[in-house]
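Let us work through a complete example step by step.
Step 1: write down the sequence.
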Amino acid sequence: MPGETLGLVGESGCGKSVSALSLMRLIPDPPGKTVGGEVLFDGEDILQVDMDDMRRIRGAKMAMVFQEPMTSLNPVLTLDRQLTETIQLHMGKSRDEARRDAIELLARVGISDPDQRIRQYPHQFSGGMRQRVMIAMALSCNPRLIIADEPTTALDVTIQAQILELMKSLTLDLGVALIIITHNLGVVARYADRVNVMYAGKIIERGSALEIYTNPRHPYTVGLLDSVPRLDQRLTDASGAAAKLVPIEGQPPDLVNLPEGCSFRARCRFAVDKCATEAPPLMPVLTTGEEPHVSACWEADKLGVQALSYAGGRSSQL
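Step 2: predict the structure and record it as tokens.
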């Protein structure tokens, strides 16, 4: 929804970035191919539009902040050309008008002296500044949706916070929908309104951020939350020994040769016989709030009590 932030989380290799590229129809073909499904945007399945129409949608209606700005910005062009080209192409403005808009965008994302710095090249900016330029480029044509693919991965924690606060405030001010793709659960907890948890190429749990964190209903979500160190957890256990994190045992499955039944079964301590033969669909689960909450787990409703015990009382901690 306008102004809403959706978090897409999961471990490396689960399909988060491929999903984002699929939404933008940026999967290279070959070797990649979209073989099914639909992407509904403004009531239209954009998988069915021709590439000329798709180029008009990209940038103007949907924009993307890529994971590594140094490889996304052209090193031999100044910011002036890289920012104004998009504005001229999609907004139909003159070069001078586009340049004025580009300078305003750089100022909006916190780059000082923008009328001078717009003449510089990407290598003359720090990593945080380059990411701000990418955000300015994404905002340049007033899109309705921005997809941010791990936008703070290469930045230190102080700059990460600045970039995320900037993106959140801009989306709220401008009414832009934002998808944040990340494996950082702290980022999701602070900035996301709703969360999709992904495993082995599929969404396995979806709900509001508060619901996902306080009432997880998939074993993988429970495992993700328990594998993250917390400032409010005890440093020692009951015997006085140093407390340990609870890892998710095992390895992710081969996405080319997925096992029968639930893809998470081999790593799940809550698995039952049915998990070996039938892949669970996303089903509504008991919720503590008004937002819909779905989970792809046969034991989702029973997991509520088990997960709280296994998690060491996470809900009371939150």
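Step 3: interpret the result. The beta strands are 5-9, 40-41, 44-45, 62-65, 145-149, 177-182, 194-199, 202-208, 283-284, 294-295.
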